[in-house]
């Protein structure tokens, strides 16, 4: 045996694991399903810990929330019954609704009816006894009373809106959409896989692995949520990512195993070669997604931390499943994996004639790589250009679907009573003996806001103090949308001018402002400060991983370049679609002229990870061909052509699943789905067929350049691995 092949006498760990699973399929399959059941049991017992306002708080607004909690001054959940038009009948309806609501155990207090400044409406404010988690369940009792009074007064419009009723209907809509997507994603995925494989079992195995990975990850996250509370989107993200990567990883492995069997290998040999090649690519891809998602921890934000935790768990489980239970299933099924065959599809997907489409697509990139690369890069940069004008906004009531009746009621309420919308909450902590001075200062502050157009004037601000006098609050309404420039300006006036001139003069007083406006401003400031660090972290680690994996600095640099190109192009499409109205009819939404603030960072991180799926798989096949001695352009042609069926099928699954999210009525989920689907499409088609082959054809053998110390390391991918593991005959 040569010196080169002796280095491979001990197979890689992916091969050793696959060999054990394939030779002990009963244990591997039984162990996997036992693991899944344990994870699901953990979820049913522990439940998922939801993040509260204290967990979500950032910056000054987060500090104010902690002060409110310590002083026991958290504002109760408030609902408002709006009655129009104003008049004697409206006064009678207001008295009736107040009497009935006051008798409910879910109600803490009912305020006096208030007439709008314009004199055209009356509202009855109602404070609920429940906290924010329970209020959504309890609010239905209040709505029943409101509906009953509406029946008594058919000539009036009696309606209810508030935090609990809005959230109840919003999350009801979200769950309805997600239920529809869960039902549609399985048949859509199965259909794509049936076209890819032409056989029912071969199509069903990847879906089974993906579903079990999603269930297991949600179960484990239920335990992890006690350390990293759920920001409210983790289970949706786990479903989204789990279905995509679970199917992808199985596809990579299964297609390679079938390819090797078609070459005459027996099942065990085919499984081992798939483990050495595609299995290695799966591990690298999974690590890339996990590393990219880990960048979200740098944001110091519970929402992003919970997303990262859920995504890392589902990717890790999908990788483990691909390396363990998948080889066991393939060994157990053997050639039966290709049964039952779908007649027409089987013939189409298993033709032995040389491919014609992909060599034709690759011809421009390989014959004239410089021209092709310049044209492609300019086209992608043109597509990315709208991102230069990307406008970001926090998700708030303005982005909620107006098809919800409660949102129509909310709009009428805020129009008549601006102070029932966004508000600033000034929180003061001072020694107890300064309580009188603090109250006087807050009343002075309230008086100054009463003559300032930056604040709402329809209801007088009220000062509240804790029992020990240490903590005090003042709520000041804002007559603007919480994410508007005007609302941010009113916050600046409050923080920079009015508070220092009033409460700031009290000895020993510590002040902080919270509320929807302050939450959004502080969140954006934190994100802007952390964004360069997160982007740098992801880029550097992606470069290091690819450099080490392929023992090539150039491959590492190329990876960063092409992934950045596809990501910024997706950002451009996102800005183009959602900041303008031309796509409203196509995608069934009302444009707010903005993109939800967390979407770009989330997309950058996750797309950089998901793009590595295809990149690692394709470059691995190119490297295998180059290791066999093919010239670089021939190696590129063979690597991309032989991986075309697998990557195309995987991309179609991702685009289909992400496209379903684009059909949701919740705007931020729609934006996430469109961004992911477009990026995957660009990555799988334009990058793979045009940009990557052009770059590699131009660079030639320089693609594999590395410092001497790195070249001396064992290559990560090579034909020797395959030949040494399973010689034919």
UniProtKB/TrEMBL annotation:
Where does the record place the Membrane transport protein MMPL domain? 92-370, 401-708
Pfam families associated with the record: MMPL (PF03176)
**Which terms in the GO cellular component ontology are assigned?**
plasma membrane
The answer to whether UniProt assigns keyword Cell membrane to this entry is yes
* Membrane topology category: Multi-pass membrane protein
Spans traversing the lipid bilayer: 29-48, 178-200, 207-228, 234-254, 275-298, 304-331, 370-388, 531-550, 557-578, 598-619, 640-664, 676-704
Name its cellular compartments: Cell membrane
Arranged from A to Z, the UniProt key words for this protein are: Cell membrane, Membrane, Transmembrane, Transmembrane helix
Q: What is this protein called?
A: Putative drug exporter of the RND superfamily
């Amino acid at each position: 045996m040569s010196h080169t092949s002796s280095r491979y006498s001990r197979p890689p760990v992916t091969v050793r694991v696959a060999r054990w699973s394939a030779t002990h399929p009963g244990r591997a399959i039984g162990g996997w399903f036992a693991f899944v059941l344990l994870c699901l049991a953990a979820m049913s017992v522990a439940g998922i810990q939801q993040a509260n306002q204290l967990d979500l708080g950032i910056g000054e607004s987060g500090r104010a929330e902690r002060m409110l909690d310590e002083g026991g001054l958290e504002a109760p959940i408030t609902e408002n019954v709006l009655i129009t038009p104003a008049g004697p009948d409206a006064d009678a309806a207001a008295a009736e609704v107040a009497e009935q609501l006051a008798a409910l155990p879910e109600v803490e207090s009912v305020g006096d009816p208030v007439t709008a400044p314009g004199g055209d409406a009356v509202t009855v404010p109602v404070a609920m006894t429940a906290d924010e988690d329970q209020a959504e369940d309890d609010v239905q009792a209040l709505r029943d009373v409101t509906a009953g009074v509406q029946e008594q007064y058919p000539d009036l419009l009696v309606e209810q809106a508030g935090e609990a009723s809005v959230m109840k209907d919003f999350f009801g809509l979200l769950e309805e959409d997600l239920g529809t997507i869960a039902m549609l994603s399985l048949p859509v995925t199965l259909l794509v896989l049936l076209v890819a494989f032409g056989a029912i079992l071969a199509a069903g195995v990847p879906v089974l692995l993906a579903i079990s990975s999603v269930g297991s990850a949600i179960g484990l996250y239920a335990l992890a949520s006690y350390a990293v509370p759920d920001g409210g989107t983790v289970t949706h993200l786990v479903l989204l990512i789990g279905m995509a990567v679970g199917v992808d990883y199985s596809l990579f492995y299964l297609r390679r195993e079938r390819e090797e069997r078609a070459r005459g290998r027996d099942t065990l040999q085919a499984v081992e070669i798939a483990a050495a090649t595609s299995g290695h690519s799966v591990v690298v891809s999974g690590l890339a997604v996990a590393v990219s998602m880990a960048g979200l921890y740098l944001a110091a934000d519970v929402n992003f931390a919970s997303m990262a935790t859920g995504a890392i768990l589902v990717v890790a489980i999908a990788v483990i499943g691909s390396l363990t239970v998948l080889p066991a299933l393939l060994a157990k099924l053997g050639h039966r994996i290709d049964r039952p065959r779908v007649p027409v599809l089987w013939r189409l997907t298993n033709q032995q004639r040389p491919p014609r489409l992909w060599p034709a697509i690759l011809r421009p990139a390989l014959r004239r790589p410089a021209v092709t690369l310049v044209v492609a890069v300019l086209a992608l940069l043109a597509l990315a250009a709208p991102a230069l004008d990307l406008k970001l906004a926090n998700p708030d009531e303005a982005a909620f679907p107006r098809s919800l009746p409660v949102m129509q009621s909310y709009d009428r309420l805020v129009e008549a009573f601006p102070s029932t919308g966004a508000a600033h909450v000034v929180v003061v902590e001072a020694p107890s003996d300064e309580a009188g001075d603090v109250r006087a200062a807050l009343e002075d502050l309230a008086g100054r806001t009463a003559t300032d157009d930056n604040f709402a004037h329809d209801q007088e601000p009220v000062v509240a103090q804790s029992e020990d006098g240490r903590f005090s609050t003042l709520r000041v309404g804002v007559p603007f949308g919480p994410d508007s420039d005007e609302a941010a300006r009113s916050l600046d006036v409050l923080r920079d001018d009015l508070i220092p001139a009033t409460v700031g003069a009290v000895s020993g007083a510590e002040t902080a402002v919270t509320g929807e406006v302050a939450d959004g401003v502080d969140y954006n400031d934190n994100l802007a400060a952390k964004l360069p660090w997160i982007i740098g972290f992801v880029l550097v680690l992606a470069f290091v991983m690819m450099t080490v994996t392929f023992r090539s600095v150039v491959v590492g640099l190329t990876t960063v370049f092409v992934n950045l190109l596809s990501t910024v192009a997706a950002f451009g499409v996102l800005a183009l679609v959602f900041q303008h109205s031309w796509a409203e009819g196509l995608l069934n939404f009302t444009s707010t002229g903005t993109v939800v603030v967390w979407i770009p960072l989330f997309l950058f991180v996750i797309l950089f990870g998901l793009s590595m799926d295809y990149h690692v798989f394709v470059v691995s096949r190119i490297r295998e061909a180059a290791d066999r001695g093919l010239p670089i352009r021939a190696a590129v042609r063979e690597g991309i052509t032989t991986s075309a069926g697998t990557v195309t099928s995987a991309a179609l699954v991702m685009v289909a699943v992400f496209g379903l999210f684009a059909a949701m009525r919740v705007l931020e989920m729609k934006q996430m789905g469109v961004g992911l689907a477009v990026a995957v499409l660009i990555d799988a088609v334009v990058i793979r067929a045009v940009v990557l082959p052009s770059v590699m054809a131009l660079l030639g053998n320089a693609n594999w350049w590395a410092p001497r110390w790195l070249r001396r390391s064992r290559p990560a991918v090579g034909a020797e691995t395959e030949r040494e593991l399973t010689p034919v005959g």
